[in-house]
Every structure is written in structure tokens, then in C-alpha cells.
From TrEMBL:
Alphabetically ordered keywords of this record: Cell membrane, Membrane, Transferase, Transmembrane, Transmembrane helix
Organismal lineage: Bacteria, Bacillati, Actinomycetota, Actinomycetes, Micrococcales
Subcellular localization: Cell membrane
Protein name: MraY family glycosyltransferase
Species assigned in the record: Microbacterium rhizosphaerae
UniProt-listed CDD domains: GT_WecA_like
Amino acid sequence: MKQYLFAVILTAALTLCLSWAVWRLSLRYKLYPGIRERDVHKTPTPRLGGIAMFLGVVAAFVVSAHNPFFSIIWTDPNQIYAILGATGIIVIVGVADDLWDLDWFIKLGAQFLAAGIIAWFGQLQIYTIPMSGGITYLPSGLSVLLTVFAIVVVMNAVNFIDGLDGLVAGVCLIANAIFFAYSYLFVRDAGASSYFNLASFIAAVLVGACAGFLPLNWSPAKLFMGDAGALMLGLLMATSAIAITGTWDPSMLDPNVFGRSQLLGAFMPILLPIAVAILPLIDFGSAVIRRLRAGKSPFSPDRKHLHHRMLDMGHSDRDAVLIFYAWTAIAGLSLLLMYIATRQDWWGQYWIGVAYGVVGIAACLVVTFTPARRRAGQPDAEPRRPEESPV
């Protein structure tokens, strides 16, 4: 655990320093777009924070190559090279879009290319699907297609909520912290000889990258991560979730081994990644359906995302961001607690997780639909026009 903590601190420190450097250089050389009608900020703000986050992540991988505790993740270096190469492609295209607004078709093509590199060259794929009676192995072609589709969906889901200061960085920090705890425990429970694994390492590095970037991105933001940062986070989060599927052991689905909650245990590797990214996925799905029904491209920007609706309801920018944080924490921690309970085979502890989720969801619903201004008896302010994040 100390080595993972070192990876978090190292990535956070490097990302913070690099973010400050990118911010200063962007201001000096005016590397920022002009103010658009849909933007919240009143002064031009650099959008190249994704570069700093990417360099922090790369530095963490480089250091891990010289750390004997992480030698297991370098057993197949092609996986690491594929991950870093795919991430590099996404960051380059994202930076180009942040500066010059690329056509959505180009960006989508780059996303499929990056996902294909991870699935095909990195051999990080969804090979199996857990069933209540065991594990179903997928045909190779279907495995690649499902993996590419999953990565592209998560990338766009994360990118779609990038509309408020500190929103994506904070949500991804919480989501990856919860997923790190789960992946660490899952590998331990699977009886692996080492607790060090690729899924946990990626999650830890992303926690560090988000923590290091958040100080400059918190409202009022000095630096935005842009498409480069948001797409990178989505890519690596999806890759981390896919990497954990390779540690499934069919014996874990035996109720005598796993515990009473066999069905929950079987589907936890799928449920938890979905839970921690539930809000981005809901926003992405509703946006695609909404735009297709209107006869538009599913990637055409609009002002009807979840965070836009919350501002229209009367929430301030910071209130909306904190509510997103709460929803992410409630969804992820509820399933994490239930997973821990299944391993302990303690029914009472299982219901603690259920009760936490029910109470947390109820509280979040009250806060979400009762903006602070209304609770205080103040009239709603005119809704602000937050920054829109196209694909």
C-alpha cells in the first residue's frame, strides 16, 4: 500500500508543478481560445491542463518501471506501451481540438484508434462475462469490439460532463479512489501472489493526476483540462476497469467460497465501474438520445447536460459540483461496502452498505431538487451559461 501511496503523491506533485507551468506558459504566449457565448468565465482561460496531467501520468509509469514492487505490471511491456501510445494520441488530438476546434468526426476516429490500440496491440480486452453459474468466454472478435465500444463510451461520458470548474477532476478523483480500493481488495481476495496489479496502479495514478490538477481547476479556475484531459481520464478509467477482468477466478463464484451474495459478487467487477461513473454515463446516454431525436449529430454541443439543468434549477456552480461529488461517492461506496460484506459473509454488514446507499441517495435527491437559494428563501438567480464541452 505504501508504494501505491507513493505513486499517488508523486503523480500529484508532478501534475501540480506541470499544471502551474502550463498555465504560466499559456498566459505568456496567449495559448487560449476566445470567450464563447456559452462560456461562464469572463476572461480567456487556458485549456491545456490535459498536457500537464498526461506528463504526470507518463512520469509515474516511467518511475514504476524502476520500482521492483511494480515489476509485475511490466511483465508484458506491450500493454504499457499500448496504453501510453493510445493516451498520447488522445492527448494530441484533444490539444488540437482545444486550440482549433476539430471536426467531431476526426475526434471520434481518434478515439476508436486509441481504443483499438489498447484492445488489439495491448491485448487488454473484455475476455469474459460473469454469469451466476460461472464465467462465459467471449469470441476474440466480439471481445475486441466490446472493448473498443466500452472505452469510447466512457471517454465521451467523462468528456460530456466537463462543463463546470473542478467537476471532472473531482468526480474522477472520487471514482478512481473507490475503484482503487475495490481492485486492491479484489486481487487480494482472488488469492494473487502480489497485491500489485495494473488496474490498481492506473487508478492510483489517476487519483494523483486529478488531485494535482484540482487546485488550479477549482472555481474560479485558472486552467481547464480541456478535451485532452477529460478524454485521457475516460480512456484510462475504462482501461483500468477492463484490466481487472483478467483477474476473475471461476471459483470465486462458488457460494461456499464467495459468501451468501453470490449474484452480487459475480457482477461486482461490472457493477462498480458503472456505479462510480454513473452520472457521466447517464448524461452521455441522455445526450445521445436527445440529439438523435432532434435529428442532430450525437456529438453536437447543446446546453442540456445534467450540470446545465442543475444550474437552471437554481444551484450555484460550486453547489452543483459538490452534488456531483456526493452522487459519485454514494453510488461507489455503497457497492464497495456490499462487496466487502460478501467477502466477510456477514449479512448485517451487507445491509449496512444497502442502508448507506438508500440514505445517501435520499439525501442527495433532497439536496439536488432543493437548491440552496430556495432552502434559504432567496429568489433564484438568472441561470448562468456554463462552459460547454463538445466531444
